[in-house]
Structure prediction request, 464 residues.
Amino acid sequence: MPSRSAERTARAQRLIIISLIALALGFLLVVQLRSQAAVARTLAAQDDTSVALLINDLNRANNQLIQQGVALAQQEAQLRQALAAGGTDAQSIQKELTALREINGDVPVHGPGLQIQIQGTVLDFELQDALNSLRNAGAEAMALNGYRIISSTPVQSRGNTLLIDGHAVSAPLSLLVVGDPEQLGPAADLSASSLQTRVQVDIQRQTDIAITEVVTSRPLIYAQLGK
Amino acid sequence: MTVLASVSLATFLVTAAAATQFRSQPLPPSNRLARDEALRQSVNQLEDQNRVLKARVQGLQAQVKAGEDQSANRSSAVQLVKAQLDDQRVIAGLTPLHGPGLTILLHDGADPNDPSDRSLGWTVHYQDLQDIVNVLWAAGAEAVTVNGQRVVPTTAFHYAGVNILVNNASRLTAPYTVTALGNPSSLAGGLGDPDQLAELKSRNRIYGLGFSWLRSTRLSLPAYDATFLVKYAQPIS
Prediction:
């Protein structure tokens, strides 16, 4: 009898242990499913508006990448053709050099764009936001009160003084932007709307704007070529 | 043993079923789910296409460069232009670089779940990355990347809804890593300056954004993964 009772207790214990293990396993499985959902949150838990805006930006970027591909394929074909004919296509190489110098702020440029007059002082982050938004709208060249601005140009505030690459600029501010006025316009309007509570902003579309200032490129001291 | 197995299976199923039901309750009706799923699938497809297009652009860039090298070997005049072109490529971020520098880390903090705090200060905003990069340039950075994306003359940080995008709609997600080449002490000095990034530093203390930086003697920065098209600007000769 005692042995049978002991056996029953042991069986009951085993049953409880196995039930507990199964219970724990069930929870673990679900916890794992849920944590996977948390990892995928970046896209999965977004609101539809965010996803729609992302789709819009991806479409725009992909179209630009397609255009870049077409331009590069053309350039390559021209280079090959000249090489096959026993010569060189110096013009195509010169054209690429000019485009890069424009992008790097290394040459004076002109073209359609906007002239934005700001009748007052703005802070560094306000100007940064505006420049960023104009760049996103396809700005190809920008200058503020006689200083060419590219993405690596530091914009800082020291008290109420605005510094462009360490040079103080004071109101009124005149920001010149070369690019597609159709795209730059809405970006400028948006920046102006947040500034206009404090300062007067005047945006003018121009068919031809000249930016004569250039960036003085800094030599690389620490960085070296290659991976 | 049969009893044991049945009990185990039953317990497992009941627990899993209960947990599943708990998860399904907040889910919206199925048509909405299907719509959401379709939208997200579009994003995945477009991001795949984005990667393929970038790879194609990079392949073509390499072919163009090969053609230019060959041309330079044939003519000394072309060689001269080619040397200038290579210099401009370095400035534009079309060349990988390495050297000493700083790695800056940042991630989203803890949601305080406080109805009175609607500032979203616990999340990293695109402006935070833009501000860090700006301070790094001011402190003498020679090249910068954010989550592996090289900051080039056309780089703009912006929002598409809650997404932080940079360089041809590359989506940046936490944790954020900014890498800068330059004098590590100058770069760290710039970030450490109490007058710089004051708002970000204050939020870092409140919400724990993990804002920190490490000095390195050798960092490797990739080149920009696309190219530039100039459509409106003309050089003034």
About this structure: The beta strands of chain B are 97-106, 143-146, 149-150, 158-160, 163-166, 170-172, 176-181, 212-221, 234-235. Chain B is about 50% helix and 20% strand. Chain B has a mean pLDDT of 90. The CA atoms of residues 145 and 151 of chain B lie 5 Å apart.
